[in-house]
Every structure is written in structure tokens, then in C-alpha cells.
């Protein structure tokens, strides 16, 4: 009876160590590809396009600094094929002038304001069933 209790105790200890070790791995940065001193990741996903059920084309940046290379990979459920290899484009200053998309709440508020303005302009409330 005592050996069963001891076995259950150690089982619970091992099961408790799994989430603790995963948390420590996440906090150390090793789970995201960073070294302990904060060096840049060796692999960095750049873009991906889904082609169909379980098929994608993925662009991955390998290395960092002057040695950066982009790999275009074909990814399926069974294998990964290299489709193309090229040098990573140089970062251009001012190339990130793209406005970020507004949050959904702001878009919804704008639509609601427009509908409210159009219904007050006609003078009669709109019937949502129409």
C-alpha cells in the first residue's frame, strides 16, 4: 500500500513539473528562438499563403545581419520542399509607412454613426426588416 502511495506522489510531482518547465522555457526566451543573452532568432517567418487543404507556400528568413537569406518553401502534411532561395532585400528607411488597420470596434462605430446620420437625414427611422 505504501509503494502505491509513493508512486502516486511521484506521478503528481512529475505532472506538476511539466507546466513549470514549459513556463520556465517560455520565460527564458529559448522557446521563441532567442538565446539567453537576447541574440536575434536564426529563423523568422516572413509570409505564408495557403494554397489548399494542408498545402502552403512559406517564406522564411534565415540568419541575421548581412547573411540574411530568404527560403521559399512548399509545405504539405508529409514534406517540405525548397522552391526558391534568394538574398533578403535590404531594409529601406521609410518602407513601413503602411497605416495599421483600425480595430473592429472603431470600424463598427463608424458604420453605426453613418447609419444613424442617414436615418436622421431622411427624417424617418429605418426598418431593419426592410
Structural description of this entry:
Its main location: other. The protein has 130 residues and is an alpha+beta fold. Among the domains are: 1-35; 40-90, no CATH class. The protein has 2 helices and 4 strands. A 4-stranded antiparallel sheet has the order 1-2-3-4, with no helix packed on it. The termini are far apart.
Structural class: alpha+beta
Order of helices and strands: HEEEEH
Mean pLDDT figure? 78
**Order of strands across the widest beta sheet?**
1-2-3-4
Q: Which stretches are low in confidence, meaning pLDDT under 50 for 5 or more residues running?
A: 34-38
Q: In percent, how much strand structure appears in the residues?
A: 25-35%
Helix content: 25-40%
Overall, the morphology is: extended
Number of helices: 2
Quantity of strands, as a count: 4
What is the CA-atom radius of gyration, in angstroms? 27 Å
Q: State the end-to-end CA separation.
A: 74 Å
Largest sheet: 4 strands, antiparallel
Pfam family, one: FliO
Family: Belongs to the FliO/MopB family.
InterPro entries: Flagellar_biosynth_FliO, FliO/MopB
Keywords: Bacterial flagellum, Cell membrane, Cell projection, Cilium, Flagellum, Membrane, Transmembrane, Transmembrane helix
Question: How would you summarize the topology of this molecule?
Answer:
Elements: H1 2-28, E1 43-52, E2 55-62, E3 69-75, E4 80-87, H2 104-122
Antiparallel strand pairs: 1-2, 2-3, 3-4
